[in-house]
Amino acid sequence: MTFPSLDLACELAERARLKGADAADVVCVGSTSLGVSVRNGVTEELERSETTDLGLRVFIGKQSAIVSTSTLDTARFDALVEQALAMAQVLPADANAGLPEAVPLIGRLTDNQLDLVDTAEPDAAQLLDRARRTEDAARAIQGVSNSAGASATWGRSSVALASSAGVAGYYARTRHSVSMSALAGEGTGMQRDWDFHSTVHLSDLEDGAVIGAQAGRNAVARLKPTQPRTGVMPAVYAPRVANGLLGHLSGAINGIAIARGTSFLKEKMGQRVFPSGIRVIDDPRRVRGLRSKPFDGEGIAGQPLELVADGVLQDWLLDCRSARQLGLTTNGRASRGTSSPPSPGASNLYFAAGDISPEALIADIAEGVYLTEMMGSAVNGITGDYSRGASGFMIRNGQLAEPIAEFTVAGNLLDMFGRLQVASDLTFRFGSDSPTIRIDGMSIAGN
């Protein structure tokens, strides 16, 4: 099998070396997507796009520059290289810049062992049918008053990476998704809610009717909300918002933030941050994972990484540059685009499931809040101070009760992590995933 984008990347990296670059790497990203949306049975959007971008990074000593183009004409490669070299010569040196050194590079890698490509490619008619069935199911739920739209999409993307260090890697990924946003009630009492599912393979995608009906039920359940009282009480995060806590964690253990000293976890390596038993894992090699990839943005083979083991922080998210700043070795977490340098990032990040069901997790809560929607964000990455708007349901005597809205949940992330409990209901739906989470002692600002 031939891989034209990889051949182009290899050729451009070699031309850069021959024209005077001490080192160079090239990334080529291509994508094709088809998406439709309907509202009240009428097609609102039908869009197909195809893009290909090429990015070249060159090094002259510790000076570097990046140029990108969407024109894949080899006749223009020499001019692209000359432009990059000229830019690098006038930019300041960076002592931590450079390609990977003394780490296991992928060499040449073009096989797909992660099952990331689905041969099923729906056409516009099939996607429209899926979107309409999704919306019909939502509108059939008693209490749903209107539709905010249903959508169905398909996409295929590919990444080719080549460097003067001997990297020549290629992989592709497909994606299918369906979503619904439903409205219930009338006028100022109207409520909106949603459901969504996305998978690599069409065979794993939930039926649109299931997604639509759930979105409709979610919206109806939110009708006539009240405000909780102001006070301190347990907060339980539904899985669809609990993964936001993973986002705060990944930002705090990002190697760039640690090197700059701008993280509230900067002194916590090797220390207990979560209760015993809590595990946080980043796995770029999960089969059919939404964010899986066989290698990172610098050509390093990705491996599963237990970032938190038994509550103890084990590792930072590192690319080569941040690792050098910290005197460490990259752990293959580099992400990049065609016009920017690599930076650390997570892949399939998740809290490992606990041993207790969601029902048992809330059974002893006399009064608390169950969070299903988070709005805004006032999170300070340096101090860990946390404050977000929310809506959801009251928990009374261990059971979900009346809907609530227009309140704020606040605390400090370090304290919150230390009290965090996880349920057993982990499913992989978003790329960053969590089971139901309970955190006691949260400050609730309501009425």
TrEMBL record:
<feature type="domain" description="Metalloprotease TldD/E central">
    <location>
        <begin position="120"/>
        <end position="223"/>
    </location>
</feature>
<dbReference type="InterPro" id="IPR036059">
    <property type="entry name" value="TldD/PmbA_sf"/>
</dbReference>
<dbReference type="Pfam" id="PF19290">
    <property type="entry name" value="PmbA_TldD_2nd"/>
</dbReference>
<dbReference type="InterPro" id="IPR002510">
    <property type="entry name" value="Metalloprtase-TldD/E_N"/>
</dbReference>
<dbReference type="Pfam" id="PF01523">
    <property type="entry name" value="PmbA_TldD_1st"/>
</dbReference>
<dbReference type="InterPro" id="IPR045570">
    <property type="entry name" value="Metalloprtase-TldD/E_cen_dom"/>
</dbReference>
<dbReference type="InterPro" id="IPR047657">
    <property type="entry name" value="PmbA"/>
</dbReference>
<dbReference type="InterPro" id="IPR035068">
    <property type="entry name" value="TldD/PmbA_N"/>
</dbReference>
<feature type="domain" description="Metalloprotease TldD/E C-terminal">
    <location>
        <begin position="230"/>
        <end position="446"/>
    </location>
</feature>
<protein>
    <submittedName>
        <fullName>TldD/PmbA family protein</fullName>
    </submittedName>
</protein>
<comment type="similarity">
    <text>Belongs to the peptidase U62 family.</text>
</comment>
<dbReference type="Pfam" id="PF19289">
    <property type="entry name" value="PmbA_TldD_3rd"/>
</dbReference>
<dbReference type="InterPro" id="IPR045569">
    <property type="entry name" value="Metalloprtase-TldD/E_C"/>
</dbReference>
<feature type="domain" description="Metalloprotease TldD/E N-terminal">
    <location>
        <begin position="24"/>
        <end position="88"/>
    </location>
</feature>
